Structures are given as structure tokens and as C-alpha cells.
Amino acid sequence: MSELKPRKDLLDIESLDREEIEYVLENAVPFKQLFQRSVKKVPTLRGKTVLNLFYEPSTRTSSSFEVAANRLSADVTNFTISSSSVVKGESLLDTIETLQAMRSDYIVIRHQAAGVPGIVAKHTGASVINAGDGYHAHPTQALLDAMTIREVYPEYKGRKVVIVGDVLHSRVARSTSTLLNKLGIEVAVLGPGSLIPEGRHDFMTRLRSWDEVFDWKPDAVYLLRVQMERQEGQFFPSIAEYHKMYGMNSQRLVRMRELGAYLMHPGPVNRGVEITDEAMRYERSLISTQVENGIAVRMAVLHWLKPETDKD
Amino acid sequence: MGEVSLFFINGRIAAAESSELREADVLVDAAGIITAIGTGLPAPEGAEVIDCAGCLLVPGMFDVHVHSREPGDEHKETLASCAAAALHGGVTGLVLMPDTSPPVDSGNLVKSAMDLVSEVSPIPMHQSGCLTKGRQGTELAGFSGMASRGVPMLTDADRTVSCPDLMRRCMEYARDFDLLVTSHTDTPALSKAGVVNEGRVSYRFGLPGIPGISQEIAIDRDILIASHTGARLHLQQLSTARGLESVRRAKEAGTKVTCEVSPHHLVLSELEIRDYNTHFKFNPPLRSVEDTEALVAGLIDGSIDIIASDHAPHTEFEKSSDFGSAPFGAAGLETTVLVLHDRFIRTGVFGWDLLIQRYSDAPRKLIGQLPVAISEGTAAEFFVFDPAAQTVITRDYLRTKSPVSPFIGETLAGAIRGTIVRGMWFA
């Protein structure tokens, strides 16, 4: 475990090897145990600075990183740039220049354009953590999902997870499915044909209905957040129809109970769309565990990455 | 015109008619006319001797798809830097796209563009005109005025006339002037905000995709309108195997349609896009390996008439944006001959004759120009190519103002030693 090659940035899941994944997931466990203590802080990153750079509003992810950094005793600066204030064609390189001048050790970045964290990483010595870029990747979400599954299934290999919803536009689906696949967990998808892309990973088996899902006997059902309106047009007729076809409701909950399957969601949930109020109270819902594990995993990631800020 | 006559010795002449290379010396007088071709010719007194041992003399290429950016975007490219790039790449004539600022949509603007060309360009450049006013796709542009100024073709350059009724009127109206209608072949309602080929690559990168059908439907639509109206139609930048099949069927049915392919669609697939490198962002996008293979086959069997570079300069700064926001296109004039030689001629996939047919003869014929050949009594218009040398494509190698190219960093077999046109030798 101690022989890991130092890594500067966390940009996606694809480039991680098995050892690195294990390292982060195992380190997240003691960090999580810390949350039970009265003093939840460790001095690991004392004197280091973390810049939270969010081009897309996200209270949850941004706060999760902020809490993680605080618990490691780092100094955190939050920098939210509302997309309306970004002039179109604003130069990314100019922004990077500005960031360089701030001399942060870690830059947590969320951006609506796929690939931006990679560009920033190339131009800075700071460790860059991708907190979600376009439809591309959301690696810390994937890691927290894997941690959550491992907690309930210590023997996770060969387990089955079905991802339900808008796979086409979901960076969560991309990153989480890739990570689960790397861990030897089977992945299937359920959703309307307009949102299940042909070009998806080969390992993502497509299931056509909830009946097929329950016949497949998933160990966990992962619901994605649904967005009705998209710039590129409409992908299903109505929220009501989506809810009827793909939402988690009381009948489907009965089947979930029979299987003992867990329920997951990256948040924030749309009640009444992908999930009913009743399903939110499902005893095997892992949704709040995911939030808690998010902090632990992000602490482990900050602890793991090695900035090259002294080279700037 | 040159000061002295030029004597190219020990070279071999390439021609469209045959893959055989002919060993001969070529004498070009001070006026730029080839006065003698043969072996063992005596060097005339005062002639500058250019030793072409091991090299080929190749007829100058002609590029029907060039964005010069002047006027309006001179920070990307100017007519002068565009001409320098062309000469550096063995291209001795070209057609300028009308998507300048302002767009060339009237006879007066064609005239002012051609006046500028005659002032600054050492090579012939033909200014094309817009199909619709301001390339807005709503009203017909001034066809008769542009026709009287001799535009070689009408096109909305990188924009499709999306209304089928308006495209029909364009073709009906253009037919009266025997004007060539050139279509970018895209269906904007399908390509939307797409930036890469839709499929595995768009999924993996999390980028919005451009499906093949966005071009295929436009090809089918424009072929049908051309066949209905009897207009001459030229299709730009084929990118998919299915689009090519449509063109084949249309040609068999006797529709007056020609088409072109860009070098990047012949030699690069979507799989070459790595690390969100925006130098590989094109419109139409780089497609699958199967598509590139079909396009190469179509080029060889003649279904594809023309090679055109789609020289589309953008500054490095503009291209340093994220993949979604960066502009489409890259420089192409200087790399087309080198890349196609390296990938196809060197490896025996096709010969120089085919390259000359598709990148020199057919494009000239498309706009009613005579082909250029290296023969006695004609104006010298050729370049000297050294197949034994190597060219490393770097920013410094490129003479375009915007050295953005997917081939930067590559070492290509062969080198262009110099180009002669209008009696001037550019080495």
C-alpha cells in the first residue's frame, strides 16, 4: 500500500489503477471513523490551501469538499462563478493565470465544459480535483459510491448494480459505472432509449423494464437525477410518464424489499419524479450514507494527491 | 515575373495520366513559360540551375475550400499569409470561402475581394459568393451581380441552408446563371451543439455528439433538390460511408453532383482525439475508422471527385479553449500534400497520378479552369518534391498565421523544396 506512485491530479476514474482505488477507499474508512469523535479535525493539511472553484452551482458537492478540507485543517477559499457572469469566450488561460497567482495547493473544480479540469491541471502545479465536468466525469462521486457499496457488501465482487435514468447526460453514470466495473461489480442500465446511448461502455447491459431489472436481481438500484428540460431538446414526453415508467414507487419498493436491494441516488433528489416520498423512507436507502461517505472519500483524496506547488 | 530563366535538372515529372514518372529536365523562361522538356538539354547561359536529383516535379495543386479570414479576421489569417501557406504546400491556386466579415454576398463585395487578391496574392485566388444574404439562410444573395464578377461557386460556407424551400430556390435561380451550388451538408437540428462524432468517443469524453445522419440527411436532401431542379451541386467534406453511398447512387442516376473530401477525414478517425486536443475538432467531425476506410476507397474509385483541405485557421489562443467552446477547423494548405504522400503514396495505396487528378485537375475543372500539366509551351505551375527527405511539422515549419494542425509533432516522409507559379520560384 505504501508503494503507490505519487499522483498530482484526480481527473477521472479511467486513469486510476486498482491499487490507487483501494488506497483511497481504505483510507476513507479511518477518516469516516473520525466523524464519531467530538474533535473531527486532523492536522494533515495544516498550512495548505484548497480553492473550491465552482462554475456550476452545487451547494452539496462544494460544501462536501469544504467540510473535507476543513477537517484536514486546510484553509479553504470558495470561488463560485455563476455561469451568467462568465462572458462567452472568456479565456480559460486567463483564469488559470489568476489561479496560479493565488498559489493554492489544491484546486477543486466543477465546470460545465468537459475537459476543463484537465486543462487547468496541465497549467498548474496545484493538485486538481475534478468535481464534475460537463457530462464527462465526477470521480469523487464514483469513489463515494464504491465506498458505500463496500460498506454494505464487504464481499462486493460479482455484485450487481443497475443505474436508472439519464445515462446519456450523466457524468455520475459514466464515472460510477467505470469504477464499479473496475471493482468487478456488474452494471446494468435502465431508461428510455433516447437517454441510453449506443456508444456507452460495453459492460453496461441494457434492461428494458423494471420487470427485467428485478429478474436480473440487482443488489443495488442507483437512481439518477432527472432533468426534464435540456438545451438539446426533449428526451421523453413528460415527467409524469417518466415517473410512471422509471420512477421508484411503492409497487417497485415491494420488489426491492423482496430482493433486499439497496437504493442509491447522487442527490439532490427530485421527489415525485425519479422517486416517491415513500421510497425516500425505504429502510435500505443509502442516500444519506452516500453524503457522509462523500466527506470521508474527499478527505482521503486530498490526503492522497501530491501537489507540485513548489515547482511553480 | 522572374529575372532569369530557371533550369530544373535531374528531376522526374509526375502527371495525372500515368503513375509512371518521366525523367526530364525542364527549362522555364523568365516569363514563366516552359520552353523545353527533355533529357540532356544544355543549360542556357545565365539560367539558374536547380538540381532536382531524386526529386519529383508535380503539377501545382488547386484547393476549392479555403478560409482566408480576410477581411474581418486578420488576426487568424490574411490573404498574404494564406498565399504563403499555399505555396509552401504546393498549392498554386484556390477558391476562397465567402465567410469573411462581412460575408461576400454581392457583386461589389466579390469585386473588392478580388481587387485585394490581385494586390497581395502571388497565386490565383477565386472568390466564391454566399447563397444567402449574410449567410443567414433567410434570403437569396445577389446572384446576378456575383455571377457577373465571375464567382466560381456559391456556398454559405460551413453553414447549411437549412430551409429546404430556400435551398430549392437557390438551385433553381443558380441554374439560370449556370452557377455551381456548393453545400456544407449538415442538418443543424440534428448536429445542434455537437462537437465530436456521436458514438463511443462522444460518450467517453462526455461531449455532445454530431450523428452521422446530420450529414447524410443533408446530402440526400440536396441531391434530391439538385435532381429536381437540374442545378449543378457540389457537396463539401464527406465524412461518412453512408453519405458516400448516397453520392454513388446519385451519380449512377445521372444527377449533376460532385463531392470533396478533406485530408483529415481520410487519415484521422475519432479515435485520434486524445486528451481533449482541440486541434482535432472539425466540422464535420472526425468519424469512425470504417468511415475513413470507405472514404479512401471512394477517393480511389472516383466516387469522390476532389480533395480539398478546408484550410480553416484559428489562433492557438482560440484553440486553447475547452473542446466544446473551441472553434472548429485547423490549417490544412501546407500539410495536405505531405500527409497524403506519407499515408498513401509512400505506402503504395495510390500514386501521384491519383493525387494530381483529385487535388489538381478535378478541382480546376469544377470551377471551369484548365488543368495544369508540366508540358512545353504552358506556364510553369509545379512544385519540387523530395520523397527521400523528411518534414517535421512544427509551429515554426508552418507559414500560416495560425499554426494549428492535428499533424503538429509528426515527422512525415517527403519534403516540398519549392513551388513555381507565374514565373516566380518560391523555395
Major sheet summary line of chain B: 8 strands, mixed
Q: Which structural class do you get from the secondary structure elements of chain A?
A: alpha/beta
Unreliable residue runs of chain A: none
Average pLDDT, all residues of chain A: 92
Q: How many extended strands of chain A?
A: 9
Low-confidence stretches of chain B: none
Q: What radius of gyration of chain A results from the CA coordinates?
A: 19 Å
Number of strands of chain B: 18
Number of domains of chain A: 2
The secondary structure category of chain B is alpha/beta
Q: N- to C-terminal separation of chain B?
A: 15 Å
N to C succession of SSEs of chain A: HEHEHEHEHEHEEHEHHEHH
Treating each run of at least 4 consecutive H or I residues as one helix, how many helices of chain B? 13
Overall 3D geometry of chain B?
globular
Please give the oligomerization state of what you see.
heterodimer
Notes on the protein architecture:
The complex is a heterodimer of chains A (312) and B (427). Chain A is α/β, with parallel strands linked by helices. Chain A has helices spanning 18-34, 59-71, 92-102, 116-123, 139-152, 171-182, 210-216, 239-246, 250-259, 277-280, 287-304; strands at residues 49-54, 75-80, 106-111, 127-133, 160-164, 186-190, 204-207, 220-223, 262-264. Chain A has a five-stranded parallel sheet. In chain A, strands 2-1-3-4 form a four-stranded parallel sheet, sandwiched between helices. In chain A, β3 (106-111), α4 and β4 form a beta-alpha-beta unit. In chain A, α1 packs across α11 (287-304), α5 (139-152) packs across α6 (171-182) and α5 crosses α11 (287-304). Chain B has two domains: 6-57 and 376-391 and 411-426, Urease, subunit C, domain 1; 60-366, TIM Barrel, CATH 3.20.20.140. In chain B, the strands form four sheets. In chain B, strands 1, 2, 3, 4, 5, 16, 17 and 18 form an eight-stranded mixed sheet that branches. In chain B, a hairpin with a 2-residue loop joins β17 and β18 (424-426). In chain B, α7 (212-229) packs parallel to α8 (241-252). The longest helix of chain B is centred in the middle third of the chain and has 18 residues, at 212-229. The model of chain B has no long low-confidence stretch (mean pLDDT 97). Classes of the chains: A alpha/beta (312), B alpha/beta (427). Chains A and B meet through α4 of A and α6 of B.
